[in-house]
Amino acid sequence: GVGAGSGPSAAGSSTAEGDGRPPKCRLDLGRQGLQDNSLQALGECLPCLGPLEALSLAGNKLSGTAIGGFLREHVPAYGGALKELDFTGNRNLGAVALDALSELLDKSKLNMLEVLHLSGVAVPSRCWLPLFSALRSQGRLKVLSAADTKLGSGRQVPACSELAKLVGEGQLTSLDISGNYLLREACMELADAFAHTSELLSLDISHNAGDNFGTLPPPLPAPPPVTRAEGEGEEAAAEEAPAEGAPPPKLDDDAPREPAFAPLLLLCEGLLRNRTLKSLSMVGCSLDYAADFLLGEVAIKHPTLERLDLSSNPHGVEGLACLLRALGRAGSKVSSLSVTDLRVNKVVGPTVKYRWQDPSDSYKLNLWHPQHRGVLRSLLSRSGGGTGKALDGFSQMDPPTFSLESCTKLDPYGVMSVPTEGVVSFGYAAASPGTPRGGGNPLEKVQGKHLQGRTQIDFKRCSALMLGCYTSCRTDAQRTVFLEAAAQAWRLKPGHIALILRLSPAALSAQVVRTLLPAVENLSGDMLVGIAGVRNKVMYNKRREEARLRHETVQLMLFNMRSPTGRHWFDLANPCDRACAERLQTLVAFEVEAQRREGRPDASQR
């Protein structure tokens, strides 16, 4: 009773060949409750089905011994046609069946296999290396699903290295290794493989947070060998030996060391050198500001990446702003971003926070850390890639021998050649804004400084991101994080706010206006798009809500940066008032610097 079209116990289909050859069969026995004795009946039915192109035994309670025997006895006869094997969910597949699979691949009995599904199988550690080696030798596998298979558990460095070679040198177009243990060694190998692959289109590494351990300081150098005269052996050695109970030699706390960071940052940086990927899923990987900073760099430069699924991660406002800033650029190919169930997070630890509006600051970068290398690349890119006098913004370089010119050279993949070890300290001063043509006001230079570091997003791209990203937020708290990130990342127009209002719940409409209005260019007192949008959304207490919104936005609407003299009172909990205070701070800092350059005293109040 097991066979194609034999009733509810099986599902099969046949594909007729146009050249008179017998039709190929695709046999799906997934989740049919098969037992070990069913495989014997299946083996007897196979000769009646013709060439077998695909076989699915997913979700059944089959033992590894039974599957191993079935593979060795019946599958070799169909090795010239079998392209797909699905063992998903067979938790007890075991070493016997996997050894049989590796043996068939080694002996070219499955030389046409292109799709292999092992998700949900508890693969023994010793089985990975021979399996990956056999698949690499076979050279035809295009789709590999190995989610939740304990890959990388106990480090498994040789197996992960072989997987990286399979990715870099093979024909894989889709790889799913979610729910495993991608530790540092595996991430380093895979990051290098991303640069060499010419076929990989889809990658799923979800639920792989990995380890987060830094390395110890370098050990002290061994003392040089002591040459003793004849007769001084044992007595001299006893004198030089440390006393019993003496403390161990103290390590140098200032010695350069590799900081602690999530190993997935290595994968994020490795994607900069990839040229094939179209879809990337990193759901539930504890991605924070550091990962978002690197993925933003990838989203700007990657030539083919179209879909990003970064749901269930603690992006925070700053991290999500990095992503939105990159995706808002016209050159970015990413058209779909999912951040469902995003969480708030603070920038802590060794991560360096980059100030996009004005990155002038003193920096100490540990170049072992991928995000620190990304900060240096961003500063060099902001400086024009190191051409002409662009590097004049860097000063007080420590060590003095560190060469910024060598960092600006591009490797064969178009990425700056920033060193991957060592510590460098320097100061950076961004170029001063120039006076616009025809501007006679002394404050004309800083009129638009509050918009620096934001991306000018067009309406079409904003619509796509709103529909795919903003609508994926499930709660008002998640929507609030998105709105605050968008206000940091984008330069908006009234039409953008009207679009977001249409996609927002009525209860959130006033907050949408308050949060996004500071990101709008060329505000004027008669701009009532926010009020009009609220009027169309609010169902109750319309007059009170409109009056409240006018009161909360009036100072920003009427704020005159060309003549800000006066006394100001701001409610810093209100985003519009806070934006006015930040612009006043920018003006004061500019005037203080101008006074200093002219040799005049600082008359500002601090």
What does this structure look like?
It is a single chain. With 606 residues, the chain is of the alpha/beta class. Helix content is 37%, strand content 10%. It is built from 19 helices and 16 strands. The chain has helices at residues 36-45, 64-74, 94-106, 125-138, 157-169, 184-196, 233-240, 264-270, 289-301, 316-327, 370-382, 404-407, 459-468, 476-489, 494-503, 509-516, 529-537, 542-558, 575-597; strands spanning 11-15, 24-28, 52-56, 84-86, 115-117, 143-145, 174-176, 202-204, 279-281, 307-309, 336-338, 361-366, 394-398, 423-428, 455-456, 490-491. α4 runs parallel beside α5. It starts with 10 loop residues before the first strand and ends in a 9-residue tail after the last helix.
The DSSP helix count reads 19
End-to-end C-alpha gap: 87 Å
Roughly what percent helix? 25-40%
Helix and strand content put the structural class at: alpha/beta
Question: What's the arrangement of strands in the largest beta sheet?
Answer: 1-2-3-4-5-6-7-8-9-10-11
What is the total tally of β strands?
16
Spatial extent as radius of gyration: 31 Å
Q: pLDDT below 50 for ≥5 consecutive residues: which ranges?
A: 1-10, 214-220
Beta-strand residue fraction:
5-15%
Query: Overall 3D geometry?
Result: elongated
Could you tell me the mean pLDDT? 83
Kindly report the oligomeric state of this protein. Answer: single chain
Sketch the major β-sheet: 11 strands, mixed
